[in-house]
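So, could you explain the following?
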Amino acid sequence: MDQSVTLPDMDPCDRPELARYCGRVRERVSAERFDHIRRVVRLAEAIAVANAFDAAERRATRLAALLHDVARDLPSEELLRLAPPENVVEQGHPLAVHGRAGRAIAVGWGVDDEQVLEAIEGHVFGVSPDNRVGVAVYVADVCEPGRGVNDDIRELAMRDLRAAYELAVASKVRYLRSKGTSIHPATLRVYEQIAHGT
């Protein structure tokens, strides 16, 4: 990892506001996925601090990052029960709904902060560029150190979160197009928002 990006040392599960969710998340995901989630929380927090998020935004960012992949390891049938497919991409790829399914789980656990819920749902396809909490979680998810890719996005996020988000979304769209993979309509909407500066 770049030396210029320092992650908080504290285990996210040691934070009182997160501790009550950590066990629930850990029960639903593999050990590897939980390690990824903890790295995303730490990086999202570092991004939030570097980009002068206020205390409430930092708390929302940590919670959304902790819950972002809570549904990622569920069987397809459970994913589709929690988040029925809304388009052809989701019908063909049930994993595509894990953000919406995660949102449903979070609501069931009493999470009612719309910023947090939008970030959980939007970490798969993207969020409005004005949703700083969602942007921080999206960027942290695609470039956390355990992935071994996107160091440039991680480095940029510490200086200019919006630019890092634009790069992350554009990279995803280019990658999917190069593979001939169907792109989710929500990702294309975000990509167009960014391209037109809205």
